[in-house]
Amino acid sequence: MKSLTLENLSKTYFDPYRGTQVTAVRDVSLNVEEGDFVAVVGPSGCGKSTILNMIAGFIPITSGRILVGGREVKGPGADRGVVFQSFALFPWKTVAENVTFGPKMRGVGKAERQRIAEEYLALAGLSHAADRYPNELSGGMQQRVGVVRALANNPDVLLMDEPFASVDAQTRMTLQEELTRIWEQRRPTIVFITHDVPEAVFLANTVVVLSKGQVLAEVDIPLERPRSWDRLVEDEAFKTLSNKVLQLVRSA
Ligand SMILES: Nc1ncnc2c1ncn2[C@@H]1O[C@H](COP(=O)(O)OP(=O)(O)OP(=O)(O)O)[C@@H](O)[C@H]1O
Fold this sequence. Notes:
By secondary structure, this protein is α/β, with parallel strands linked by helices. It has two domains: 1-79 and 156-239, 3-Layer(aba) Sandwich (Rossmann fold), CATH 3.40.50.300; 89-154, no CATH class. 37% of the residues lie in helices and 26% in strands.
């Protein structure tokens, strides 16, 4: 795992309807320490996905720099793993084969792939589903496979764009608890994008609030770990922090 640094990052799109340039991200600087967990929130259109897509290397940056472990990155790379809300597991591959697809592409041998599958499926509580196919899994299980598939590539930074937005509320809370547990065990460097303020506060060490493409605030979340909804739902510090972030988002 490595640190992630954004230096004066900006992105301008050409809007074909208006025939003008639109600045989606303006001069964003951010430092995510190695092994840190940062959530990014903000109203629709504030530039969250644009920032994540630039970090992933999926879209070119207009100006500024992105550094992973102090080294400037340009374009996509296996050093940055990405988990989206809707992503495709390979339907013709089993869960274990999906998880080890990246290692296989990198030339990792069969025995080692077997070990990786066992390790990561156990991490996600999915050992029993190793030989199933994606269409035999619930939505929540598919999201779990997506998360460990990204982790099995051993990325320096894990980028997550609303990965739990499409599952029901109950499953979503379970996935959030599992992600914090996995983060505590493995300490991947995570940037997690979400609309959902309680989700951001529950998961992260720092919540970054974006407004109109700029960083409005960085809020520290010094809540104890391990975090569970049973405990935090009635926790005064959690409520106070969530309200603080919510007010910032509403003012954004
Ligand atoms: N390909 C594009 N071409 C032109 N404008 C774009 C493009 N992609 C995004 N934008 C504009 O850039 C701004 C930021 O969009 P972005 O999708 O990054 O916001 P967001 O915070 O992720 O929104 P949401 O929460 O709704 O997904 C918006 O004004 C959007 O309309």
